[in-house]
Amino acid sequence: MTESKTPRRRNLLKGAAVAAGAMSAPMVSRADTVTFRFQSTWPAKDIFHEYANDFAKKVNDMASGRLKIEVLPAGAVVPAFQLLDAVNKGTLDGGHGVLAYHYGKNTALALWGSGPAFGMDPNMVLSWHNYGGGKAILEEIYKSLNIDVVSLVYGPMPTQPLGWFKKPIAKVGDLKGLKYRTVGLAVDIFNELGVSVNPLPGGEIVPALDRGLIDAAEFNNASSDRVLGFPDVVKNCMLQSFHQSGEQFEILFNKTKYNTLPTELKSIIDYSVQASSAEMSWKAIDRNSKDYEEMKKQGIKFYKTPDAILRAQLEAWDKVSEKKAAENPFFKRVMDSQRVYAQRAGQWQSDYMVNFKMAYDFYFAKKKA
C-alpha cells in the first residue's frame, strides 16, 4: 500500500509546485500589454467623457494588464466630428461618440438618435438595434462607405430638452428665424420649422451663445448643460422634445487593431459595453436629477415644451423622413425596420407599463385647494 501511494503523492507534490510557480509568476509583463489610444467627442469636464472613461476602466480592470485603453478628450488628436475617419484610418485605435455626428456620410446614421423613432423610448431603440435588425443594417452602411470599424452601440440617453432660449417658446411661430444649434437629422427637423441651424460641436456652443452668434441651442442633459455653462449665459430651458428623444452612444474600434486581440479580450470589451450601458443609465438618473435641482436653485426657469410644438415636430419629421427615404435606400430600410419593431414593442410597453407619473403626483404633487 505504501508503494501504491508514492506515485500519487509525487504527482500531488508536482502539481502543487507547478501551481505555486504559476501563482508567484506575474500574469503578464509590460511588454505584453496592448495599448489602445481612444478619443471621445466630448470636453474633458463633460459627463459624457466620464462615461467614456467608465467604459475604459471596466476593460482595463478586467483585462488585468493585457489591454489598456487610454481615453483623450475631444480635439486632443482630431476634432469631434472627425472621429469616425480617424478610427477608420488608424490615426486613433478607437473612440466614443454618437452616430448622429456621422450624419454627413449617410443620413441614415442619424436614425440611431434623431427623430421620434415611432414612439420608442431610448431603451427600446437600443433593443431594436440589438434584436430588431439595426446592428446588421449599421454594419452594411459602414461597409458601403468603406469604413472598416467595429461599432458597439450602447447607453440609451434620457430624452433631450428642446433647448436653451433667451425667452420661453410659447408657440411654433416663436421658433421661426432663430439661429439655433443642434446636430444630425434634428438639423432638418428644425429647418422645416423655419429655424436657422448651426451644428456646432459641444465645446463651442456656449461661447457662441455668449457672443450672440446663435440665439438658442440644445445639447443633451442637465449635467452636461450645467458643466458646459449654459446657465451662465441663458436663463430659460424648454424641456421635452422629439428631435432627439431616443439617442444612443457609440464605441468605435479600428477593426484591424481590434482583430489582433484574442477572443478573451474581445469578450471583455463586449461585456464591458453591456455593463457600461447599464451603469450609464443609472448614473444619468442620479447626476441629471441632482444638476436639475441645482440649476433650479440658481434661478434657471424650466418650461415644458408646448404640445403644439411637439406635434409640429412630428409633422416636420414626417416630411423630412419621407424625403430622406426617397433619396437614400438605407434610410428607408432603417425606418421600415424601426417601424415594425416599434409597433410590436410599443404596443407591449403601452399596455403593460403603469403610469408612473400618477404615483409620483400622488406622493409629491402639491395638493390644490
Please give a structural write-up.
With 369 residues, the protein is an alpha/beta fold. The chain has a domain at 30-156 and 247-285: Bacterial extracellular solute-binding protein, family 7 (D-Maltodextrin-Binding Protein, domain 2, 3-Layer(aba) Sandwich), CATH 3.40.190.170. Helices cover 51% and strands 13% of the residues. The chain has 14 helices and eleven strands. It has helices spanning 2-24, 47-63, 83-89, 122-131, 134-144, 186-192, 202-210, 222-228, 230-233, 255-258, 263-297, 307-327, 329-352, 356-364; strands at 34-40, 67-72, 94-97, 149-154, 163-165, 179-181, 196-197, 216-217, 236-239, 249-254, 301-304. The strands form two sheets. Strands 7-6-8-5-9-11 form a six-stranded mixed sheet, sandwiched between helices. Strands 2-1-3-10-4 form a five-stranded mixed sheet, with helices on both faces. Helix 6 crosses helix 12 and helix 8 packs across helix 11 (263-297). The longest helix is centred in the last third of the chain and has 35 residues, at 263-297. Mean pLDDT is 91; it is low at 1-10 and 12-30.
